[in-house]
Amino acid sequence: MQRTSSRLTSSQKIFFVELAGTFVVVLLATGSVVIDAKVGGALGLPFVAFAPFAGVAAMVYAFGKISMAHFNPAVTIGFFVSGHIKKTQLSVYLGAEIIGALLASLSVLAFIGSEANLGANAPNYSFPLAVIFGVEVLVTGFLMAVIFAAVYTKGLRGWSGIAIGGMVGLDIFFFSFISGASMNPARSLAPALLSGAVSDLWLYWSATFAGSAIVALLCRKKFQS
């Protein structure tokens, strides 16, 4: 009798590391917001920006060589537009990212708290809607550009995790007061669904994909023509 191999396929490996990576990223990104709300804002924006920076950086170093470390549906669509992943891989990446994000928000609810709508993103409507949408496109574009820079320089000489995580942290620090600086539809979806604060999801499921797709089209034209 032939023994069935117990080794995971490439798609299975991608699924599990994308799920795990997204879980960590969303747990830290949203959990930091909830923790700060629980202490009345005493930790402040530096803490809220640093937590996802650390999570993204760690997960890029841990899993980048297996899945290219998306952890973000907008990044996955960007890589699809640029030709780095195939259409058949989309369901693996997107399914893992959404499940990982939902598990993260469930963990926040169970172990940290439900303050601040479980850390859901919220735009500042004192700014014009066009500005809010444009800023969310911009910050996602910045992130996608840094990710492509890491890809085309073979990991920025070992600094890829710091650079990508740093871009996430900087975007949050400088732009979250306008658009919420999600950059990640899964990060926005999970806490919004579980808290019921879904009115702003349209923004994070449109502007983020637009930002990553625009940069991906530019990179595809430049590097793959």
Automatic annotation (TrEMBL):
Keyword Cell inner membrane: no
Parts of the chain that traverse the membrane: 14-35, 41-63, 92-113, 125-152, 159-181, 201-219
Keywords from the UniProt entry: Membrane, Transmembrane, Transmembrane helix, Transport
Subcellular locations according to the entry: Membrane
Membrane topology note: Multi-pass membrane protein
GO CC annotations, alphabetized: membrane
Protein name: Major intrinsic protein
Classification of source organism: Archaea, Nitrososphaerota, Nitrososphaeria, Nitrososphaerales, Nitrososphaeraceae
